[in-house]
Amino acid sequence: xxxxxxxxxxxxxxxxxxxxxxxxxxxxxxxxxxxxxxxxxxxxxxxxxxxxxxxxxxxxxxxxxxxxxxxxxxxxxxxxxxxxxxxxxxxxxxxxxxxxxxxxxxxxxxxxxxxxxxxxxxxxxxxxxxxxxxxxxxxxxxxxxxxxxxxxxxxxxxxxxxxxxxxxxxxxxxxxxxxxxxxxxxxxxxxxxxxxxxxxxxxxxxxxxxxxxxxxxxxxxxxxxxxxxxxxxxxxxxxxxxxxxxxxxxxxxxxxxxxxxxxxxxxxxxxxxxxxxxxxxxxxxxxxxxxxxxxxxxxxxxxxxxxxxxxxxxxxxxxxxxxxxxxxxxxxxxxxxxxxxxxxxxxxxxxxxxxxxxxxxxxxxxxxxxxxxxxxxxxxxxxxxxxxxxxx
Length: 392
Prior knowledge:
This protein is of the alpha+beta class. The protein folds into 2 domains: about 5-170, no CATH class; about 190-325, no CATH class.
């Protein structure tokens, strides 16, 4: 059941307008430069209505001075605090009526259901629309200047570009324009050159430049062309400290060439490698449909490697990138071979740890698993069926 997006947009617009009016009336000597929705929260079960904070040049200057007095001068501090809602002074909590409206959205999404993410995305996108409407109204009323901007500021930063015109985005958030230019530059490169540039920042990031947090997905987007470079990392031929990320990205690309399988199998079996690296390699093998390589050595591999490896295709990590069909047989075989590991599997796949999302063609496998002799299998199958809104 869809929720009333118009009602959410209208309520959010009124919330932001009233907050700016309040600051304007109570602090006439301050110059209002912007306002933002922030502190968005939705965990698949509950949705909280966001806060609104109004920024003024005077309160920003005071906060910068306070930070500087406590920690010393820092380049770019004013820019980083300008749109940091929790750090600014004029914040407004949502009313009980607004939270009740958020509760109706939550109810329409269905807690934990497959459609929840889609509904939550629709909910988030109401707030950039509200920011635009509020901005237009406030400028028209003469409460703020034409340079005033209002935004929805989610943690990922995806709502900010939706809140502003291109000119406003470049003026107030130049990093977004810089990031888009960098994406276009990379896209124009021959794919081999693109892989060479993306690889270091994807597997051993320095957290520099305009594309922080995007290098992994961009590298996965290179598909088969990225596979040899990632295999080289897994084999410790290049960027040895990036083997965990490289193994995960190979699983996301999900092309099981002999070189890929050999490299991951070698890392999984490498007794001198870190346990975490071995476990991620095992998980990648399982997601590539090669759990048999774990099961063949189940008696000799460390328990953590076996458990994390076999369990990986049942976790939410499976849904990042390409993946194989849900198959409980490897888990059943592992439990039969080492029943003493059942508590460890139950902990690894405990409810709330993040399960894979059930695709329609995987329903028969999940339903069949409800008859498993192993409780951990039954619990997982029941949960993914319920999340997908499929009767068990």
